[in-house]
Specification:
2 copies of one chain form a homodimer. By secondary structure, chain A is mainly α. In chain A, 71% of the residues lie in helices and 0% in strands. Chain A contains 10 helices and no strands. In chain A, helix 1 crosses helix 7 and helix 9 packs antiparallel against helix 10. Chain A is elongated. At the A-B interface, helix 1, helix 7, helix 8, helix 9 and helix 10 of A face helix 1, helix 7, helix 8, helix 9 and helix 10 of B. The structure holds a DNA duplex (30 and 30 nucleotides).
DNA sequence: GTACTTGCTGACTCATGAGTCAGCAAGTAT
DNA sequence: ATACTTGCTGACTCATGAGTCAGCAAGTAC
């Protein structure tokens, strides 16, 4: 029985390659990653990879975009569609969403961007537009609605949606750097949100 | 008049080289930095650099250590020596200390560690021992003293000194990634500390 | 002045890894 | 079967940059 040396699978290749690339980038970082290693994990030759992606940089951008796309939209949608009170939403869906972030691929992308971002300003802009700006916007909208409904009061805290994100940021960095040391990231995030809630509740 | 091609300055060389290396690493990151560029900026030949530092990695470690050394001790000392009330200390020296961090060399080191840390676990340990552990310890000691003096009340927040750091972390990452977009990092940090204070004040 | 030590130079080597390309073989049409 | 298209392979090139080293010259001792 003859094993064919390869099969033609034009459609799935790009996705398989970016998936493999994500893994390798996650483990080694951008500069540490070898294109040949990516090809190997995707079960493909180096040459083929270069048929789908012009350069390593190109591949990198494709990976970031594949991870980032539409990831925050669900939050915005949840804010708009929910019928919960602001307090219940914060304690429920919002908290759940935030707890998930540090373990998600987004954390990997953040690390990659911190490391190599300054070389690819357009990538940073892309991330800004599709994650940071949207994410902060969604939180702002949520708070704003709470205020106009009389559930929250306006204050300094209201002006900084970044404070909602802050414990998530700490959790991500902690996880990236100090895998050995334990930190209850869920509890950390929850504590911050509870403190904010206590502070802005009308 | 003859300019001598070089002078012998055995004592100052290492410091001059690590200073130059810090600059280059800050601009280009570890992998992006060229040893020759470091040498050039230090006004020295590549060969000499390798006389003082065995490898590029060695140089990197030296840079991190030179930045990190004793940086947090001043905080711990301030906590122990102050005669201010806990509230006044938090609003004064502690706040000032934290505002300074995002613009300091420590932010550069954090970026370098996030980027390359996983390749140098002993460096991460070093950073842990000398910055993170000490820093969190100092904050914990401060809070603990406040509680025992009856100025603060124990709560969930008290268990997470990371919450004091969180806005500093956000500020650092923001500054590193989004130089273009403005964020009043001082105000961000202040707002978080005020919220914490309001929350734990007895 | 002469001899000696050693801080210092810069042209070199050599490994590595991104990117190329001539040709091969899987699939398709006739 | 035969001819043809094109997804795919992997050995190659070539630039880059870390690390070396033979020799030079600044400082020192006599």
């Amino acid at each position: 029985m003859i094993e064919p040396r390869f099969q033609r699978r034009k459609q799935q290749r790009p996705g398989e390659i970016t998936d493999a690339a994500f893994e390798v980038f996650a483990e080694k970082g951008y500069t540490g990653a070898r294109v040949e290693e990516v090809a190997k994990r995707a079960g493909v030759s180096k040459g083929l990879l270069y048929l789908y992606f012009k350069t390593k940089e190109d591949l990198f951008k494709a990976v970031v975009k594949s991870v980032v796309i539409h990831r925050v939209d669900s939050l915005r949608a949840a804010v708009e569609e929910t019928e919960l009170s602001s307090e219940a939403f914060l304690r429920g869906p919002l908290l759940e969403f935030m707890k998930r972030v540090p373990g998600s691929p987004v954390a990997v992308v953040v690390r990659l961007l911190i490391a190599e971002g300054h070389r690819y300003p357009d990538l940073v802009d892309y991330y800004w537009d599709n994650v940071v700006s949207k994410g902060l916007g969604a939180i702002r909208a949520f708070v704003e609605r709470g205020v106009s409904r009389g559930e929250f009061r306006r204050s300094e805290v209201t002006e900084f949606p970044q404070l909602f994100i802050a414990p998530v940021m700490v959790s991500m960095i902690w996880t990236i750097l100090f895998t050995k040391r334990v930190l209850d990231t869920d509890k950390l995030i929850e504590t911050q949100l509870e403190m904010i809630l206590a502070h802005i509740r009308a």
